[in-house]
Amino acid sequence: MAKQAKTDRQAVIEQIRSQQKSAEKRRGLAIVGVCAVVALLIVALAAYRPIKNWWDLRQFRDVALDKIGAPASVCGKETTKKATGNQQHVPDGQAIFYDDAPPAFGEHYGTPDPMTRKLYTEGDRPQLGTLVHNLEHGYTILWYDQSVADDSDQMSELRGIADKMAGTSNFRFKFKAVPWLESDGKAFPKDQHIAFTHWSIGGADKDPSGDGQVGVWQYCSSVSGAALSDFMIKYPYMDSPEPNSM
Fold first, then answer.
1. Range of the domain at 207
2. Average pLDDT of span 166-170
């Protein structure tokens, strides 16, 4: 009887071990399955934004710039202010305070942002001192506030506009669309969510070293490719203190 009892206990022990191994195997497979699902979700999320951006751009591929977004009537008249800061460089990272929202001229950092990139978001936008240097080189900058950043349709329109400005060899495409952040300074005028700025010498045929330099602003309630097109024709890159610099 003792031998039989020992055999029974051994069988029970073996059964428990077998059950434990099976449970551990199931847990292992479950962990692998969860990891695989998480990995797939990470890949899917990483791929989602580029694919969506590509899909959104398709609607603008055969659409002229002046047909993207709202009509030009959503924008007010341009305003100007005497410009200062031509060739006044300060060390990178030094605090610079601009009175205007957004700036159209002023002292700036020593290196402008490359022409390659045309659209930025809050997470990767260059510093204001860098962008003002771009203005000195003839860029038109479109600034957008948080309400536009939160509007997927308007952001798609900005991507469509930026796509029209792609390239680095044609200086007519000296353009950047960047966010204006609450930390940058005061807000845009009431009900205005887009601003165009340009550093002008008072006309493309004027002497860049003269006293006629002005900053130019135009505010809009929403994205308007038509208004941007008119603005860039009226204030081309040649109408700037240093038009031949990248």
1. 68-234
2. 95
